[in-house]
Amino acid sequence: KKAVAFAQDQRDWIDVQLEHLPTPQPFEPGGTILFQGDPYTLICPGPKGRATINRAKQQILVPSPDSESFPGRVRRLLIREASAELEAATHHYAAELGKRVAKVSVRDQSSRWGSSITKRGEGHISYSWRLICAPPDILEYVVAHECAHLVEPNHSPAFWAVCERLFPETNMAKRWLRKHGHDLHAVGATV
Q1: For the purposes of burial, counting CB atoms within 10 Å of the CB of 18, is it exposed (0-12), middle (13-18) or buried (19 or more)?
Q2: What are phi and psi of 176, to 5 degrees?
């Protein structure tokens, strides 16, 4: 009863907060989602075949035998794309630092874009699959940020110096994530 009364008392504030939420981008045929910073249309071309991305037409084609399995197939395709991009970028930036990353993981992280653990001189870096929905330079920034932690495990001035050496547009990318990061979390969200 207390929770309901509180919610009713705060209804105006709650409505204002809900108005600021990004528009959900559910995984449904005909819907539009962000992919590498651009809007792509989701298409179900039929029940069978391999999922593909048509960059020229900004379409993501995901065969599916039914509407229930379509969202999972879209999500798996995005995770595959994210894994390929993030792994390549991670090894590139780690090599620039003379470091080695033993494992790159892609998960559905809700509070962080990435995290880094270093043990025995090797790193394990985990990322949110939603980074594939951001513009490529934003993905590159997050990778450079996590690789900088292989050298500096904190957010000290020395860390930011390493990060900016790897990715000179660090401040721009941080601003973009603060302003648009919530849009990435809307990808795959349902109404």
Answers
A1: exposed
A2: -60, -45
